[in-house]
Amino acid sequence: MATIAADPGMHEMIHDENLPLVRRLEAVGFRAWPASSVAYDGSWQIRLTGSHPSKRLNCLVALDPSDVRDIPLRIEKAERKFAAHGRPLLVRETPLSPRPLLDYLAQNGWERFEEVVTLTADLTTIELPDGLDYLPTQDVGRYVDADIAVHGADPAGKPALAEIVSAIQPPTGLFVIEDAEDGPLAATLCVQDNDLAGLMSLAVRADRRRQGLGVELLTSALRWARMRGARAAWLQVVADNKAALALYAKMGFTEAYRYAYWRKGA
């Protein structure tokens, strides 16, 4: 499967024949992690969520490589919109991003950061390992508490995270591994969007890693999605997380494309 080049400043686009897959995965990704406010400037999507700092929920995403009109003016307009919400503008680069937009950012002091790999797996052929099978909960509060605990996040973010999870429209399985005495050990959510299943926010508590909990949780979520009719799975992982990439490759996931963010340099 084609990937973008390794140049950290300007990545080459993947082949055109892969763009329909990118468009579909981007669309299901938006539904799997919904922003509270979505506006459009042409084909540029402007995503804002005042209650949560997630970059995916607060960024500009161009969805058509040919939409290149008035780039400086539209960037300035988006910056004002983000500033009104108390946030700096972030631009999310995907294979759908117009080359002139990326050139403009690079030539005007913007910096590229946090490359993320989107992976996919064929659920009709993947062999899932045997092991404990965890059933999903529908208790959003329980899931959010577990997610915050395993990530070591600030508990003050619970209301915002609960709002995002509750806003997900496609069927969603909330998976948690807990210990009666030790509390939450691992958590993930699986969003089934027709024949696609997205794994979001998979994490194991730092002191319980390398014990197979991640594989057990991932397997349970994929088995749940497959039983509900999903034929393919997708997930996203930061490109420098070598351990996670190795685990997902072993499970049968392969790279579909990468994305990254741009921010205005100091």
Describe this structure in words.
This protein is an alpha+beta fold and 266 residues long. It folds into two domains: 16-118 and 259-264, no CATH class; 125-230, Aminopeptidase. It contains seven helices and ten strands. It has a ten-stranded mixed sheet, sandwiched between helices. Helix 6 links the parallel strand 8 and strand 9 (232-238).
**Overall morphology:** globular
Strand content: 25-35%
| SSE-based structural type | alpha+beta
Number of domains: 2
Mean pLDDT value: 92
**Largest sheet report:** 10 strands, mixed
Q: Cα-atom Rg, whole angstroms?
A: 19 Å
- DSSP summary, beta strand count: 10
Number of helices: 7
* Euclidean distance between termini CA atoms: 36 Å
Kindly state the percentage of residues in helix. 25-40%
Strand order of the largest sheet: 1-2-3-4-10-5-9-8-7-6
Q: Detail the poorly predicted runs.
A: 1-15
Q: What is the ordering of alpha helices and beta strands?
A: HEEEHEHEHHEEEHEHE
Keywords:
ten-stranded mixed β-sheet; single chain; 10 strands; alpha+beta; Aminopeptidase; 266 residues; 2 domains
Topology of this structure?
Layout: H1 19-32, E1 37-41, E2 44-48, E3 59-62, H2 71-84, E4 90-93, H3 99-107, E5 110-122, H4 140-151, H5 158-167, E6 172-179, E7 183-193, E8 196-204, H6 213-227, E9 232-238, H7 242-250, E10 254-264
Parallel strand pairs: 3-4, 8-9
Antiparallel strand pairs: 1-2, 2-3, 4-10, 5-9, 5-10, 6-7, 7-8
Helix pairs in contact: 4-5
